[in-house]
Amino acid sequence: MHSHKIKVLLLVLIISVRLPAQPSTIGGIVNNYTPVQLLNSCNNKITVEDATAFKPGDTVLIIQMKGATINLTNTAAFGSIIDYKNAGNYEFNYVKSIAGNIIELKNKLTRQYDIPAGKVQLVRVPYYQNANVTSLLTCLPWDGNKGGILVFTVQDFLILNADIDVGGKGFRGGIDPLPPQSSYFCYENQYFYPPDPFLASEKGEGIAMIPSSQSYGKGASANGGGSGNSHNSGAAGGGNAGKGGHGGHSYEGPPCNTTIPFTNGGIEGNALAYTNTANKIFLGGGAGAGQTNSGIFQANGGNGAGIILIIANKLQSNNKKISANGAVAPACGNTGPDCHEGMGGGGAGGTVLLQISNYTDNTIIEAKGGKGADMTAINPDRIGPGGGGGGGIAWLTNASLPANVTTTTTGGQNGVCTDHANDPWGSTPGQAGLNLFGLQIPVDNILFKPNIDSVRIREILIRCDSFDFKGLGYFNTNPIANWNWDFGDGGTATTQDAAHTFATGNFIVKLIVTDINGCRDSISKNIFSSILTADAGTGDTICAGNSTVLQASSSGANQYTWSSPQYLDDPTRLNPVASPSVTTTFYLTASNPQGCSQTDSVKIDVRQLSAFAISAPTSICRNDSSRLNASGGDLYTWAPAGSLNNSVIANPMATPQATTPYFVFITDTLCGNSATLSTTIIVRSLPNVKATKSNDIDCTVGQSRLNATGASTYSSIPGNTLNRSDIPDPVASPTFSTQYVVKGIDLSGCINYDSIKVNVSSIKNGSYLMASGFTPNNNGINDCYGIKYWGTILELEFSIYNRWGERIFFTRNPSDCWNGIYKGVPQDPAVYIYMIKAKTTCQDYIFRKGTFVLIR
Predict the structure, then answer these.
(1) Which residues does 475 contact at the CB level (< 8 Å), separation at least 6?
(2) Are strands 584-591 and 553-555 parallel, antiparallel or unpaired?
(3) Cα-Cα end-to-end distance for the chain
(4) Which of 345, 731, 814, 846 is deepest in the core (most CB within 10 A)?
């Protein structure tokens, strides 16, 4: 035990004196980028434009830059985001192998990507144990296919002795096409995309791909800012976490002069949604270009900023910045007439993602929007300046902003008309971005396994040329979606299991399975088909001790085997002589050299001498039938014939009305035997079922008691107006005259019927009287005060009041009555008042009010 402790102590001492690794010096562009051309999720391989800068073991980032869908109508809704789809999806993975420009990833991708429409790129992520930034660290500018992101990992210490800056490396600003324009157009609130680029400049770039025919005009392009429209409108700023600013109004002088400024300025780039749940990241949106017509100054929009993603244990900033600021719109360099143009907007701030455990000093993070360009010309008429860029996002893995970290995600300032007291002339600043915390950087860590492990074919021989194929597919996650059979003879099937009949010959059967992601696997199997028939022949009947030749036939077989060989002279011959002693079924199996076989059977009946028999029939109820059965011969004659449906068959149907003996004369013509046998059918009498009633129903008598006799069990129909339909004496309560049919069954199971009609009269026979008193003394006589002899009551309100007018009893149920108790207390002898409103089968409305006496 002591020696082990010493070893552990020595190991700790050795580790504690190990010197830290010398930091790597980094600066410039440290990432390699390549557009992704194809992603094969079935084998976890991606095809890229150029894989030469990657090697096995590399950490890589796959990220989709675009692919959202937007409104493309020529309305104010143009550019609004309908669906982000997979735009902004990203995750870390590792290179397993490389073959040409095909890179195999080690782990399973967890997110979806739209390739190539979504502009997906693969970025090599460098890894450092310690790193020292000694010169400006940036990224390749986004060129429409790749770039725009700086990403690296430091195991321990990251030291900044220079800035990290991806400002203006994001989505591109719009380009002013400098048209040779000789006339002016003034279109108020028109052309979110114009019919001709001559009437507007280019929109800024955003997360959506838009048709080139709609890439001009004031409508936003998702988070890309809209351009200025003719005549000389300012362009909008790009958006990211914050919305971009609006472009300035169009030219106020002739021919566009008006008291209401035109609003042809570019529409601001949309703000993008950032949440820890969606976990999407985006480049800052490019700004739109201002509309010019001088043909000299080019009022381009500012580029959006790029993405910074850093993973490190500790960060020492040394007052250096981590910046992703949108680009400022180009300014016109003089105050002459060449600057009297609509100006470009500012680019949006970018996205800064930091997974830092310890900030050792003050850290400055910026993701600001770029400024829109000023209109600097000296001229009596105002023209649209550019809108400011929207702020970006600082997104940290910390739960809140660390005390020594400062973030700035302000929107960019809008441009102004400097010769008009800095009038913005409709331009607006970009909105501020945001800080977000609790970032979970997605790292793929589940080893990739193909979904389809294997596929198998199991065939079941139906005939030598017909097979029942069973498809077996083994998968890890997603089930098999499609089964495709190719039987090698032109036949196909698309079910998991399939039967197929072939011509004679060898065939290669292939099964291809596809899962819900389009991944496939296949298997092939050789099948030999042959034509082979086996017919065991027709059956025969022989007398005991005789023989018969089995009349079998077959084609395509060279070997035969019969069952029950003890009764055959040669069970390997196609037509053996059979001498069975009892009735026997023989089975023929015919086989060919390829191992195919067919089986058929034939039955040989053997008649034993004097094997006549007659079965005992069942007893029956009168008017029922019973079948007679005799066997052992060829000819049958029954007597008496009058109650039989056919007197010359082996099994006639008998319908006697009384117990009757039957005789049958049987002849065996094959073996020359005959005999007379007899049996008796016992006929049971039917029960004498009688149905009676106690009374008919009128307005004062609402029920009638039925009574049935003569059987053991009873059932009556219709049963819906009976209290029970399965007793001999049910209570009937019909609302109209009804004929009841009673079915009676005796102990022998014989059935008979009778019926009785209960008449219902609507004649008013009663005066709907109430008793004058009652004695609730619990002697079983007149203990409860209620309604009697009113007939069938359909609706009822029955109330009882005491002498103070207090209602002490109420019911809607004609069967309820008052027992002289109120609130649990027996009431005193007194006069009480009843009040009744009712509807009966005889009278629609009845009202009775009166008094009665409670006597004790």
Answers:
(1) 451, 452, 453, 515
(2) unpaired
(3) 102
(4) 345
| DSSP assignment of 194-246 | -SSGGGB-BPPP-SB---GGGSBSSS-BTTBPP-PBTTTPPPPPP-SSSPPPP
| Alpha-carbon separation of residue 613 from 210, 394, 574, 650, 661 (angstroms) | 95, 102, 36, 11, 16
289 close to 175: Cβ distance less than 8 angstroms: yes
Distance of CA 699 to CAs 23, 795, 815, 835, Å? 111, 14, 16, 20
Which residues have a Cβ under 8 Å from the Cβ of 437 and sit 6 or more positions away?
395, 396, 397, 398, 399, 400, 401
pLDDT tens digits, 475-510: 888 888 999 999 999 999 999 999 999 888 899 999
Which segments of the chain have a pLDDT < 50?
A: 1-20
Closest to 826 (Cα-Cα) out of 769, 772, 774: 774
Q: Closest Cα partner for 838 from 769, 738, 737, 735?
A: 769
As a whole number of angstroms, the distance between CA 777 and CA 784 comes to 9
List the structure tokens of 683. Answer: 């006929």
Number of residues that make up the chain: 856
In a 3-state reduction of DSSP, which class is residue 16? helix
Query: Judging by DSSP bridges, how do beta strands 830-840 and 520-529 pair with one another?
Result: unpaired
- 441, 307 in Cβ contact below 8 A? no
> Which pLDDT belongs to residue 252?
84
Task: Quote the CA–CA distance of 553 and 533 in Å, as a whole number.
Answer: 8
Reported in sequence order, the residue ranges of 623-681 that DSSP labels E, i.e. its strands, are 626-627, 629-631, 635-639, 653-654, 660-668, 673-681
Asked if 583 and 549 count as a contact pair (C-beta separation under 8 A), the reply is no
- DSSP annotation of 375: B
pLDDT tens digit string along 545-578? 889 999 999 988 899 999 999 999 999 999 999 9
Cβ neighbours for 81, distance < 8 A, ≥ 6 positions apart: 68, 69, 70, 207, 208, 222, 270, 272
For residue 785, what is the DSSP state? Answer: B
**Contact present, 833 and 818 (Cβ < 8 Å):** no
Tell me if 508 sits within 8 A of 483, measured CB to CB.
Answer: no
Q: Do residues 159 and 133 make contact, with C-beta atoms less than 8 angstroms apart?
A: yes
Output the CA–CA distances (angstroms, integers) from residue 357 to 137, 314, 402, 434, in the order listed.
21, 6, 10, 21
To which H or E segment does residue 541 belong? strand 540-543
Q: What are phi and psi of 442, to 5 degrees?
A: -75, 120
Q: Cα(61)–Cα(103) distance, rounded to whole angstroms?
A: 13
Cα atoms in the 13 Å half-sphere on the side-chain side of 245: 44
Phi and psi, residue 404, nearest 5° = -100, 25
- Cα–Cα distance for residue pair 353/285, rounded to 1 Å: 17
Confidence at residue 21, expressed as pLDDT on a 0 to 100 scale: 62
* Residue 321 burial (CB count, 10 A): 18
Predicted confidence at residue 187, as pLDDT, reads: 61
Burial (CB < 10 A; 0-12, 13-18, 19+), residue 279, is middle
Contact between residue 307 and residue 141 where contact means Cβ atoms under 8 Å apart: no
Give the contacts of 306 (CB within 8 A, at least 6 positions apart): 139, 141, 142, 147, 148, 149, 150, 166, 167, 168, 169, 170, 283, 284, 324, 350, 351
> Other C-beta atoms within 10 Å of 196: how many?
12
- DSSP-derived secondary structure for 129-193: SSEEEEEEEE-PPP-SSS--EEEEEEEEEEEESS-EE-TT-SSPPP--------S----TT--SS
Give the pTM. Answer: 0.61
Is residue 751 exposed (0-12), middle (13-18) or buried (19+ Cβ within 10 Å)? middle
